[in-house]
Amino acid sequence: EKVDRSLFPRMGELGLLGSTIDGYGCSGLNYVCYGLAAREVERVDSGYRSMMSVQSSLVMYPIFAYGSEEQREKYLPRLASGESVGCFGLTEP
């Protein structure tokens, strides 16, 4: 399968990336709104909902919660707009 990279900026325009974060180009929605949006994206394609969730929860939220202000200002707006695509590392013992 192939991922349509052009969907990230479109998701950003709709405020779907990092939507529960307030500021830095993010929507600042509550978790009910996030869940409803995720459900609708899931109806179309589970992979795209996963992309949205990883970008929002596993990439953007840790930067917001634990990053410096300089890191937040540098990364979050570009991740929220879909200009940048984040990733995370998962390891097991």
Give me the secondary-structure topology.
Elements: H1 7-13, E1 22-23, E2 26-27, H2 31-44, H3 46-66, H4 69-81
Antiparallel strand pairs: 1-2
Helix pairs in contact: 2-3, 3-4
Key features?
about 90 residues; mainly alpha; Butyryl-Coa Dehydrogenase, subunit A, domain 1; two-stranded antiparallel ribbon; 4 helices; 2 strands; about 60% helix; about 5% strand
Query: Number of helix segments?
Result: 4
**Widest β-sheet, arrangement of strands:** 1-2
Based on helices, strands and strand pairing, what is the structural class? mainly alpha
Number of strands: 2
CATH T-level fold name: Butyryl-Coa Dehydrogenase, subunit A, domain 1
In oligomeric terms, what are we looking at? single chain
The major beta sheet can be summarized as:
2 strands, antiparallel
Contiguous low-pLDDT stretches (5 residues minimum) are none
Order of helices and strands: HEEHHH
Roughly what fraction of the amino acids lie in strands? under 5%
Distance between the termini: 30 Å
Q: In the CATH hierarchy, what is the architecture at level 2?
A: Orthogonal Bundle
CATH superfamily: Acyl-CoA dehydrogenase/oxidase, N-terminal domain
Q: What is the domain tally? A: 1
- Overall geometric form: globular
Compute the gyration radius: what is it?
13 Å
If you average the pLDDT, what whole number results?
95
What portion of residues is helical?
A: 55-70%
Just give the CATH class.
Mainly Alpha
